[in-house]
Amino acid sequence: MDETQIAPPPNAPAPDPDPSSSGLRETKKRETRRLISDRATELFIGQGFERTTIAEIADAARVAKKTVTNYFPRKEDLALDHQDEFVATLADTVAARAPGETVLAALRRAFLASVASQDPVAGFAGPAFTRMIADSPTLTSCLRGLHDRREEALAEALAEDTAAPPGDITPRAVAALLGGVHRVLFTRIQELTAAGRTNPEIARLLDAEARHAFDLLEPSLHHYGRRP
């Protein structure tokens, strides 16, 4: 047999002699990422986000500075490391809603469930983490940007889901209303946390307040996006 028919291309990676090694590498990467994130959070909470340097984080995690920036290109990514999950929450809820369920009903249901479970992505981050964000202009600005991105993702999902014609303002207006309610409720959780309320206390208050907030949108959105 001609060897050229079985030889790998010149730039092809060498075969992995141990298939399990790739799984071990991925596990190691996840562990390293988590270690860096945990050490960074400890420093941010202890001495403030703005005062903490990448070099200090690298030293605390016992890795090189380059390793830190490879895993987290921006410093704020170290503090807010669930950004993609946060941005996608509303759009994902809309995409996964049940037959017969409206957009408003799906988002109300999902938010109340996140309150009941005291989900950190919904704002139940604890007093130290909440104070860390409030004390940092960089993180406060980043959080506003995440809310904006989440609203934009929701608008895109609504436009696609309802087959809105190009240029139709309806999905953007609906996303602004629903995104605004979520932004207000997130801020409310932060305020109550900063005031010293425990997560169970906040959850009890937010359950009632969230129901009221979503009820305010009911007259306008009670039929919008109902799935057949």
UniProtKB/TrEMBL annotation:
Keywords: DNA-binding, Transcription, Transcription regulation. This is TetR/AcrR family transcriptional regulator. InterPro entries: Homeodomain-like_sf, HTH-type_TetR-like_transc_reg, HTH_TetR, MftR_C. Residues 30-90 form the HTH tetR-type domain. Residues 1-31 are annotated as: Disordered. It comes from the Bacteria. Residues 53-72 bind DNA. Residues 7-18 have a biased composition (Pro residues). It comes from Streptomyces vinaceusdrappus.
